[in-house]
């Protein structure tokens, strides 16, 4: 395959050519017909080649990401494996035939055949908290390519060298124009979304950032969809039979893992046991301090700690950014206590769980810990949770998101902008292709 071009802004210093957003989009538009015409098998080959290239460069990728993020070596090695597995899974899915046929229903007895058509060039915004699996080489990039769409990826400014390295690898592997990388501030983001050639957007980040892109996309003369993953509280309801030490350990690890910088981090735990609340708060506070991804994120975490301490009981560890728990009564749940806060913190609410779901906004996940004695109470909670979450977890933490056919990684606002879509799993491809019904076409003309 001919090499693509990596497009970066001035802060990258490793000699890659600097090309404007308009040039990147023009290249993607030029490449779109070729990519759309590729068979599913060729798309599979293309994505498997990307996975192989990334795996081969692991000894350079992982240390670079380690230096820029502060995440652990084990975490980043696992994330690289997830990234390559995801590319291969989506490539395999792209190779499977997809069409629906209703025989003989058209006028004159013809068939109606529905086939998927790529939407065209996709703008992808890399996330900071998963620099590989949700970054330049992540699921939005992989699913758009699997759908037959070129991508223009905006690297995250917190990881310029990691983003550039991943971009170089993908650009060398993919057809010319199929992949481009841009970088810069908010003005570059808006320019990219407003570019006439861009036909869809994939975003993982803050609610403020996602809403800005949505507004820009809606204000275009031809509005385009923005598939944005944003803020998620991920509530956990611990029923009496499951208020045990193993649950404390699991939740403390989920709250503080990767310094609490996961989109699926439990931000709220509800329990009827004050003793369980105290044990969980102490367990969270006992976790050693871990560097956060950026100074801005660490400052926001410390600001939230100071604000919460002024109004509520806070159990905090030593150091900075300190892990901490805010312990309140269920009746106090409102406002900031029901919002996502990035970092190793959690709100623990003591009281009955049955009224909590109705107070919640949309989330990626909701979890229930229960034993057999709690089944009826859990049954009563499920309708409210189903209305507010994209994934329900039973007796487990929500932080692990399996890359598989059945996964749903999405949820009602403000978790995402499109609750019916997913950014993980094979269904993620459907965001970037649309069904077209072909009525009565001769068989030899069908794609």
TrEMBL record:
GO molecular function terms noted in the UniProt entry: oxidoreductase activity, acting on the aldehyde or oxo group of donors, NAD or NADP as acceptor
Gene3D superfamilies recorded: Aldehyde Dehydrogenase, Chain A, domain 1, Aldehyde Dehydrogenase, Chain A, domain 2
Annotated Aldehyde dehydrogenase domain residues: 21-344
Keywords: Oxidoreductase
Protein origin, superkingdom: Bacteria
PANTHER family given in the database record: ALDEHYDE DEHYDROGENASE-RELATED (PTHR43353:SF3), SUCCINATE-SEMIALDEHYDE DEHYDROGENASE, MITOCHONDRIAL (PTHR43353)
Name of this chain's protein: Semialdehyde dehydrogenase
Protein source organism: Catellatospora chokoriensis
């Amino acid at each position: 395959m001919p090499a693509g071009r990596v497009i970066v802004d001035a802060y990258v210093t490793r000699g890659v050519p600097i090309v404007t957003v308009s040039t990147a989009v023009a290249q993607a538009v030029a490449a779109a017909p070729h990519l759309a015409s590729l068979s599913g098998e060729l798309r599979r080959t293309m994505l498997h080649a990307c996975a192989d290239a990334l795996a081969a460069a692991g000894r350079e990728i992982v240390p670079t990401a380690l230096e820029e993020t502060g995440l652990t070596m084990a975490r980043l090695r696992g994330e690289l494996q997830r990234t390559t597995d995801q590319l291969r899974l989506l490539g395999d899915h792209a190779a499977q035939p997809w069409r629906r046929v209703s025989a003989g229903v058209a006028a004159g007895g013809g068939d109606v055949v529905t086939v998927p058509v790529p939407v065209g060039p996709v703008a992808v915004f890399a996330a900071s908290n998963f620099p590989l699996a949700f970054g330049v080489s992540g699921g939005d990039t992989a699913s758009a390519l699997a759908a037959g769409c070129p991508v223009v990826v905006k690297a995250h400014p917190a990881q310029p060298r990691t983003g550039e390295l991943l971009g170089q690898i993908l650009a060398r592997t993919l057809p010319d124009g199929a992949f481009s990388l841009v970088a810069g501030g908010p003005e570059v983001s808006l320019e990219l979304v407003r570019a006439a050639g861009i036909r869809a957007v994939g975003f993982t980040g803050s609610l403020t950032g996602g809403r800005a892109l949505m507004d820009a996309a809606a204000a275009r003369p031809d509005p385009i969809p923005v598939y944005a993953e944003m803020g998620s509280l991920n509530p956990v309801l611990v029923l009496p039979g499951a208020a045990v030490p193993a649950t404390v350990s699991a939740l403390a690890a989920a709250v503080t893992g990767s310094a609490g910088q996961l989109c699926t981090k439990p931000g709220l735990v509800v329990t009827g046991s004050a003793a369980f609340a105290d044990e969980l708060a102490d367990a969270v506070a006992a976790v050693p301090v871990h560097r956060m991804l950026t100074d801005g994120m660490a400052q926001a975490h410390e600001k939230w700690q100071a604000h919460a301490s002024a109004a509520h009981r806070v159990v905090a560890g030593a150091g900075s950014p300190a892990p901490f728990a805010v312990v309140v009564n269920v009746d106090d749940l409102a406002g900031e206590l029901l919002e996502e806060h990035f970092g190793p913190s959690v709100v623990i609410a003591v009281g009955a769980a049955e009224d909590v779901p109705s107070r919640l906004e949309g989330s990626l996940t909701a979890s229930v810990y229960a034993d057999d004695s709690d089944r009826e109470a859990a049954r009563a909670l499920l309708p409210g949770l189903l209305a507010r979450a994209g994934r329900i977890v039973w007796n487990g933490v929500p932080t692990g998101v399996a890359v598989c056919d059945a996964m749903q990684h999405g949820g009602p606002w403000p978790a995402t902008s499109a609750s019916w879509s997913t950014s993980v799993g094979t269904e993620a491809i459907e965001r970037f292709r649309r069904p077209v019904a072909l009525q009565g076409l001769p068989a030899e003309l069908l794609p």
